[in-house]
Design brief:
This protein is α/β, with parallel strands linked by helices. The strands form two sheets. Strands 1-2-3-4-5-6-7-10 form an eight-stranded parallel sheet, with helices on one face. A two-stranded antiparallel ribbon has the order 8-9. The longest helix is centred in the C-terminal third of the chain and has 18 residues. It contains four helices and ten strands; from the N terminus they run ββαββαββαβββαβ. The chain has one domain. It is globular. The relative contact order is 0.13.
Length: 212
């Protein structure tokens, strides 16, 4: 059974779904600050396999360490609308930490552009992801904050099989509707090869890296 919800954040009191396999949430109120509390209900669904979230800068994105782990989740899809030029994406790691059995991670970014003045990437320590096998990042432009996140995952996901980097973004809007974001030509002219080389240098042996 699948469940899809788009709208203002709902006040859940009782949500019994013993056969729920897939959830899509898009809480579109700009006042949402308690999304992690809503997500905590997902930890009670014994058969939940896939979680799809629509996120933006106005929502609280980081999951608190105190939240119950989503222990049955195998696939996580994050659709993120950016509204500022440069933004730390390391909040994604709080989802990896909350999903210890996660095998597949898809991230799609929109509102993205390449910035001329790039910051140095930081070295992130302290986490390993032993079950993560496949990662896909869409709407990728090669900015430092994108490279920082994917480089950390390449170094820290010990069972990783494949990483796909895609400049094209197909953004799910809910209700079966999609929006398409295409890359600028400079990606193919120069940045793609630079990104491929940098990520290949940081990938563990055996990881199949695809840069489209």
């Amino acid at each position: 059974m699948n469940f899809e919800y788009s709208g203002d954040i709902m006040k859940i009191t009782v949500f019994v779904a013993p056969c729920l396999v897939k959830i899509y949430f898009n809480f579109n109120s700009i006042h949402v600050i308690d999304m992690p509390n809503a997500l905590s209900y997902c930890a009670t669904f014994p058969t939940l396999h896939t979680l799809i979230l629509h996120l933006d800068p106005w929502k609280e994105k980081r999951l608190p360490q105190s939240m119950d782990s989503l222990r049955n989740l195998k696939q996580l899809e994050l659709f993120y609308i950016r509204a500022i030029k440069e933004e730390d994406l390391l909040w994604v790691l709080t989802y990896l930490n909350a999903c210890p059995l996660l095998e597949k991670l898809d991230i799609t970014l929109s509102g993205e552009e390449f910035h001329k003045n790039q910051r140095e990437m930081r070295n992130i320590y302290g986490c390993t992801y032993s079950r993560l096998k496949k990662v896909r990042m869409n709407g990728f432009n090669g900015n430092w904050f994108e490279m920082e996140l994917i480089t950390h995952i390449l170094k820290s996901a010990t069972s990783l099989d494949q990483v796909v980097i895609n400049p094209l973004a197909l953004f799910y809007l809910g209700g079966g509707e999609w929006s398409r974001f295409t890359p600028d030509e400079s990606w193919y002219e120069s940045r793609r090869d630079v990104v491929r080389k940098s990520l290949q240098e940081n990938a563990l042996v055996g990881v199949h890296l695809v840069v489209l």
